Amino acid sequence: MNYFSTRGAGPVRLDEALRSGIAVDGGLFLPERLPAFSIADFDSVESIPEVATVLLRPFFAGSALAGDIEEILAETFSFEIPTTELPVDGKKLSMLELYHGPTAAFKDVGAGFLAACLSRLEGDVDAPLIILVATSGDTGGAVAAAFDKRPGMRVVVLFPDGRVSARQEHQLCCWSDNVLSLKVRGAFDDCQALVKAAMADKSLSAMHRFSSANSINIGRLLPQSTYYAAASLRHYRRTGNKPGFIIPTGNLGNASACIVAREMGLPIGPVILATNANKTIADYFESLEWLPRASLQTLASAMDVGNPSNMERLRKLIGEADVLREQLGVASASDDEIKTAIRQDFAEFGFATCPHTATATHTWRQLDSGLKDQYDWILVATAHPAKFETIVEPLIGEPVLLPPEMEELLSRPSRSVSIEPELTALAAALEDVG
Ligand SMILES: *Cc1c(COP(=O)(O)O)cnc(C)c1O
Questions:
Q1: Which residue's alpha carbon is at the smallest distance from atom 2 of ligand 1?
Q2: Higher pLDDT, 196 or 272
Q3: Which of 110, 192, 387, 417 is the most exposed place for a label (fewest CB within 10 A)?
Q4: What dotted CATH number matches 67-105+219-406?
């Protein structure tokens, strides 16, 4: 299978696309064509790793990793991704729980897959590969967890001092010796600029082997498509209906994976993007003009994106706004609506949702009754509410129980190094990384 950039560069093999993340022309990688599947192709498989093996095999054609697919997927899906039915009278409603991984958010899936692939392709104990990752909260923890203790691999996480929650900070700083956590005296943008500057710096690149784990890597899209495939097949076999999905969306990474799964022939009905107050996508569908902008801060902070970079992939794959809006729904939730949804979820479902997941439950409640009744809906839960306890607990009036994985992480010692937002400071910190 060959991969091309959305802007034309290529072809490259999967290994090169995984290694470089972004194409030389600045575009995003896509396979030259999506393989087509029929439901019968999955007749003998049920679990997510089994479904994933069938679905992803064509993408590995020609890759040095082709013989390792099963092992890679077993490592990626070392935790459960259940679909649970929600207790709502007369409605077929369920929730796809993507938050049972080591850092309790869906990003554990993409990070785990990327780590399993890159450590096999690039792991080198004499000259380790250094993954540089700038994070505003969730991504850095997932990447650190995925590469933790992997021989021949190092991770350097850069996060903005004082701008992540206490629990998020702990999840960024509780790993073993191969993870260095840098608390940058600056904003997230400073962290991102430092990563870019380090990768572009000739003398640093001569001393270290760098890679980044950015959110547009094809190594996130591929494994994420498999949980939509497995969940839709399970639902279709049981009911004969193609479920609709409502997906909390910021940078469009997770939602693109669902759209790709539907394109490949999986039994998926309508797909609705649930955004927060950042309305770039909704405005695009309405005005047909793509107008990226600065992001607004909301309670669903991991979705505070004003320029969703995966839109470039969707436009290439599906078409421009006039086509996209025929195939996708979009809705937006204000902070007040997110708060109301968290309270209502707790009252109706009996458990709390995180502020991101609440954009999906809000969207479902707002669907017009025709659409709501015509389909069975699967709401996508992107993180555990215990990650956002300072928002959720006052709304529901009681503590959110910590899942055991999070409790274990939070009991570990935490360590980090503070640096100024300057390349010389990063370079000095890297001297100890090897
Ligand atoms: C990253 C993230 C999102 C947004 O996912 P995209 O792929 O950027 O659309 C939603 N919820 C949580 C909890 C996240 O960490």
A1: 302
A2: 272
A3: 417
A4: 3.40.50.1100
Q: What is the pLDDT of residue 434?
A: 61
| CA dist., res. 403 & res. 387, Å (int) | 10
Q: Which atom of ligand 1 is nearest to the CA of 305?
A: 8
Rounded to an integer, what distance in angstroms lies between the CA atom of residue 414 and that of residue 164? 15
- Each residue's pLDDT tens digit, 37-48: 999 999 999 999
Question: Are 275 and 330 spatial neighbours (Cβ–Cβ below 8 Å)?
Answer: yes
Model pLDDT, residue 213? 82
Q: Is 107 in the pocket of ligand 1 (CB under 6 A)?
A: yes
Query: Does the beta carbon of 30 lie inside 6 Å of ligand 1?
Result: no
Ligand 1: residue of 311, 353, 382 to mutate (most ligand atoms within 8 A of CB) is: 382
Domain coordinates in residue numbering, the chain: 67-105+219-406
